[in-house]
Amino acid sequence: xxxxxxxxxxxxxxxxxxxxxxxxxxxxxxxxxxxxxxxxxxxxxxxxxxxxxxxxxxxxxxxxxxxxxxxxxxxxxxxxxxxxxxxxxxxxxxxxxxxxxxxxxxxxxx
Length: 110
Description:
Elements: H1 3-15, H2 32-43, H3 67-73, H4 81-97, E1 104-105, E2 108-109
Antiparallel strand pairs: 1-2
Helix pairs in contact: 2-4
């Protein structure tokens, strides 16, 4: 979820009168393999994947059920993971190729 959506949703929930827990996240179901595939496409690379089949198994994917937040606030984060990844990738890539160091401290980017 893009940070703008996260901030907007959090502010809306905080300012609202609804007191029960609500999910705030992307409803896009994506597996780690799909996520890696998106990054490969964006970066124009193909990564070698290796799997530890003896490792503990987790969930197959993650997503948010946004039905309650849609009903209560008539809103949900925009489902655009690939667009958000592409925007983030290019920002970091541009800074790296310009010789700038990406430094993140307490939400401050330089």
